[in-house]
Amino acid sequence: MKAMMRYNGQFFLQEVYVDSTKQLITRGEETTPIEQLVAHPPVSGTIYGTLLNYKGELEALGSAVYESPYQQPPKAPILYIKPVNTINYHQASIPMPKEEDTLQIGAALAVVIGKKASNVSKEEVQNYILGYTIANDVSIPHSSVYRPAIKEKAQDGFCPIGPWIVDQKEVANPDDLDITVHINGELKQQQTTRNLIRPVAELIAEVTSFMTLFEGDTLLVGVPESPPLARNGDIVRITIAGIGSLENQVVITKQQVKENTI
């Protein structure tokens, strides 16, 4: 299927064809396993995350959503930013602060914006999407959703993304994609975008009703409830059906073995 990626020191996205199951890249007459390339982050703009957009995630809060300070479930998308220092890439290490024992793994479908989007209707959203990729919205475990979790979510290397962007025309329905997380080869989470509270088109329409998304920006549609935990040395693999797989190893900061260059 048609995709775009940056690899082996290239500055600009290159059009390639990928086999998302076998993780193969075809360029002209040459087919190469992803492991033989350095797949740089395929995004360049601001990365926005979305909180509480999975049904199970909101249900897990139970009656807490009716308590102070908000006293009701959210009526609009709850957004946060994964700043540029968090951007990481396929097969790079995820640096775990030495004072932490575990990191939360946040498997997220990432929607890459193809052109300036403001006040976009649900019916027009597909015209503004460049394509889809995979993000690992890594966090230090925390429970509060009432304050910006900057320390917990914005550490260096806390947003591996890629390895490519699948052309939006290749994804028939982004609201019907199975997601799995394996840690050291063991299945730890199984979810689907069918469980989104706001499907992709609705989410983008709501977001662009109050803010502009620009070409190259990326919107993470949400992280499912009960994110699995990874420890030092664990190899994490997130797979989204029809998109591909994103793999990284957690390495405690003082033992980090691979530089997370962008």
TrEMBL record:
SUPFAM superfamilies: FAH. Keywords: Isomerase, Metal-binding. InterPro entries: Fumarylacetoacetase-like_C (IPR011234), Fumarylacetoacetase_C_sf (IPR036663), HPA_isomer/decarb_N (IPR012686). Residues 46-251 form the Fumarylacetoacetase-like C-terminal domain. The keyword Cytoplasm does not apply. The keyword Metal-binding applies. Coiled coil: none annotated. Gene3D superfamilies: Fumarylacetoacetase-like, C-terminal domain (3.90.850.10). GO terms for molecular function: 5-carboxymethyl-2-hydroxymuconate delta-isomerase activity; 5-oxopent-3-ene-1,2,5-tricarboxylate decarboxylase activity; metal ion binding. This is 4-hydroxyphenylacetate isomerase. It comes from Cytobacillus kochii.
